[in-house]
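FORM 7B - TANDEM STRUCTURE REPORT

SECTION 1: FIRST PROTEIN
SEQUENCE AND TOKENS:
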Amino acid sequence: MFRDSTDEELISYIRQSNQFALEELFHRYYKCLCQLCSVYIKDDAAAEEIVSNIFIRFWENRDVVTVINIKSYFFSSAKNAALNYIQKKKAPLDYIEDYSAQAEEHAEHNTPFKILSGRESYKKILSLIDTLPPAQRQVLLMSRIDNMDKHEISNLLGITVRTVETMLYQSIKNLRRLINNPHDLTT
């Protein structure tokens, strides 16, 4: 019934509480979202659970979620959920090393990622990122690790581009301060 419908049409039907429209979106994106999560977390069962939860949250919040591009929304949600999963599970060292290589490839500006190089330094920067306020940490990871631009972050989080810029500036400033003055962690 909905196979020929566009994503935008399906979203409209979902807002009208049509579960069949959600089922069609699920069939369109579930497999590739699971594959994306599996790349990050290397656990197929956990990836499937993460993706299922994304669809459940989307359904539960269908009246309040404002989505311009559902594909972008799902892929960004999957990446962020996988990163959150990793953070909660404290990923194995080999995964952190893989992630370190990705971060070095994406770091184009003079950021703490360039200032600190190598495996030990990267572990240190991860622990410093964990000390940032949650909103700053999320924006920094989306920008530097997920390589998202300010407009994508703004749309995904529902905040202004200016707020994204401010939070990004503050997070980098705080990281630089912590790198230069490690004793600030204890104060």
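SECTION 2: SECOND PROTEIN
SEQUENCE AND TOKENS:
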Amino acid sequence: YNLNMIIRSHQAKQDGYEYNHDGKVLTVFSASNYCGGNNWGAVVRWDYNEEEPWISSFKTEGVAMEKLSFSKQVTLFEDPAYHSLIEKIMSNKTLLLKEFLKADTSKTEHLSLTIWADIMSDVLQMDLPWLILRTKLVQVHEYLLN
């Protein structure tokens, strides 16, 4: 075999990735904050006509598991669709925040559920039942529903 590099995903790396063996081995770990740790995650893409891979590191906010109900903890760890949705939201969090702030014209730090749902659909380009999903994604203040 005429290999130039081996890319593996085997163990957590503090920066999400690490080169070893004179740059011939690249370890990539895609789970940031793995098991409550403080590591970064990374994604690597290598186009066939490029000399070097493209690497993007990321780190998500840690979740205080003790503050979640048992059912929400189970959902976070066992539902792959929910996990995928959270990854999509986190990868677009900067743009989401920008749109939320722009929509909050009265600077109350609160949005109506319909505006929130519209922004989620527009930014994430996902036609989902956001108003149903809201209970798993955002805190709704009862006094704002009246």
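SECTION 3: OBSERVATIONS ON SECOND PROTEIN
Residues 72 and 78 are 10 Å apart (CA to CA).
The helical segments are 70-78, 80-91, 93-103, 113-124, 130-137.

SECTION 4: SIGNATURE
Preparer initials: ____
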